[in-house]
Specification:
heterodimer, A: mainly alpha, 2 domains, two-stranded antiparallel ribbon, B: Arc Repressor Mutant, subunit A, three-stranded antiparallel β-sheet, 4 helices
């Protein structure tokens, strides 16, 4: 007896649906194919011909995958966007900001990185909250987990991981350059180096920490999904 | 045979109409529509299921797994109250369209 489910599963690759939903679709299409083939056999058709005729119902499996995917998600696009992007992103942003505020109030003194002149520090000074920086990979991993679990695309997962640095990025790309242009009292060489140091300390370093945790979580989740698929085959 | 564009438009009406008489699973539905339209409307698996899922998302039909007497699991679809509400304007729209086409072809033949 032909295993129609295995056949359909082999053809419908790249489904971005929940595993249970995907299994439902596969089972339903397989049942339809099995019934069509049985009916053709009852009419006296040879098995090979019946299978060929049954399979001719789908000319392009990739197109069918795409159509089913769209049909099951398009109407729900707002809900999906909320689940796959907005919810993980806002949660990681809230956690990151909340944690930073707590560390600033209750945590150890920040690490100040600057050139020294005698006993004093020379501007620009980078203020690094080490405990916050060390916690960011976990927050990035959480963002990746929530977005990936809801079937988020690569872009949605990536955006959810990096969302907490977005306010700083906006500030350093728009806010600080505006201050440099408008404020004539501060030496421009100090402002430009402050911009660079600030960008590194508040955007690049936290971004790298978030991304490290997020990417690890994503790799772990995709491997787990792959091993589940192999097990179910 | 009816052209593809018209078929696409009438497909939802066909599905809702056959489900109005009772729940059916996908294969039965395709078979029933083909029989009742004398082969003018024919649904392949590739055409039927994306449409059923779309209609289910809209809340017009609802599918549920059932086990037949032979022990086979199949997903049966039922028309919902929303689908029933949608059916009458759909029927009216298509009746208007076919009425207009009939009048047009009569005038053209005259």
């Amino acid at each position: 007896m032909r295993d129609w489910e295995a056949l359909v599963e082999g053809h419908l690759t790249g489904f971005a649906l929940e595993p249970a939903e995907s299994a439902d679709v596969i089972a339903e299409l397989a049942a339809h194919l099995a019934e069509t083939c049985e009916e053709l056999r009852k009419q006296g058709m040879a098995e090979e011909e019946a299978v060929r005729r049954t399979l001719s119902q789908v000319e392009d499996w990739k197109k069918l995958t795409r159509l089913i995917q769209t049909a099951r998600t398009k109407e729900n696009i707002m809900t999906n966007r909320v689940k796959q992007f907005w919810l993980p992103s806002l949660l990681t942003l809230l956690l990151s900001m909340g944690l930073l505020a707590l560390i600033q109030v209750f945590g150890p003194n920040p690490w100040l990185v600057a050139r020294k002149s005698g006993w004093s520090l020379v501007a620009p000074v980078a203020v690094v909250y080490l405990p916050w920086l060390l916690a960011l990979p976990l927050i990035g991993a959480l963002g990746a987990f929530l977005s990936y679990r809801s079937g988020g695309s690569q872009r949605a997962v990536f955006s959810s991981i990096l969302f907490p640095v977005l306010p700083y990025l906006v500030f350093f790309l728009i806010g600080l350059p505006m201050i440099i242009i408008l404020n004539h009292h501060i030496a421009h060489n100090i402002m430009f180096s402050a911009l660079f140091v600030g960008f590194f300390g508040w955007v690049l370093a936290p971004g790298a920490a978030l991304l490290a945790g997020g990417q690890l979580a994503k790799i772990f989740l995709s491997r787990r999904l792959d091993s589940r698929r192999i097990a179910s085959n | 045979m009816i052209g593809t564009g018209i078929k696409r438009g009438t497909a939802e009406l066909a599905v809702l109409s056959v489900l109005e008489h009772g729940p059916l699973h996908g294969y039965e539905m395709a078979h029933r529509i083909e029989q009742q339209t004398k082969g003018a409307l024919r649904f392949t698996l590739a055409a039927l299921y994306p449409m059923l899922y779309r209609m289910e998302q809209r809340g017009w039909i609802r599918g549920a797994w059932e086990t037949s007497s032979s022990g086979r699991r199949r997903r049966c679809y039922r028309i919902t109250p929303v689908g029933k509400k949608r059916l009458s304007p759909l029927r009216r729209e298509w009746a208007e369209l076919f009425g207009a086409l009939r009048r047009l072809t009569k005038v053209s033949n005259a």
